[in-house]
TrEMBL record:
It holds the Pfam family ComP_DUS. GO terms for biological process: type IV pilus assembly. This is Type IV pilin protein. It comes from the Bacteria. The keyword Repeat does not apply.
């Protein structure tokens, strides 16, 4: 009698089902961890812009308003775009923002902002989601 080798169709289906269940659990968790690790780019870029603003202010009468030269380029990132906003050029106020782009645009934390107003920095997350470390 010939002994059969290999897998039965049922064994193969069970294996495929187990792999599918593991992938369904692991992939969203992995994606969230990747997005979470990329958030540090936003915080690093915002901190860099804050430091540059303070350096600019120490040499000029106002904070940098986004025009002119001498400030340098915005921090580069594949996951965030950075911007400086001054409602009106003020010696005491500015806002720097990091807006997610590309693969990071689906991040639950959304846009990070650091707002300086009269010496007080307010750090916010546009989504208001908890556990978006600032």
């Amino acid at each position: 009698m010939k002994q059969s080798r290999g897998f039965t169709l049922m064994e193969l289906m069970v294996t495929v089902a187990i792999v599918a269940i593991l992938a369904a659990i692991a992939l969203p968790t992995f994606t969230e961890q990747v997005r979470k690790s990329r958030r540090s780019e936003a915080l690093q870029g915002l901190t860099e812009l804050q430091l540059r603003q303070e350096r600019w202010r120490s040499n000029h009468a106002t904070y940098f308003d986004g025009t002119g030269t001498g400030f340098g380029s915005m921090p580069s990132s594949n996951n965030y775009t950075f911007a400086i906003t001054n409602g009106s050029v003020s010696a005491t106020a500015y806002t720097v923002t990091a807006t997610p782009i590309g693969a990071q645009s689906g991040d639950r934390c959304g846009t990070y902002s650091f707002a300086m107003n009269n010496g007080t920095v307010t750090k916010t997350v546009s989504s208001g989601a908890s556990n978006c470390s600032l």
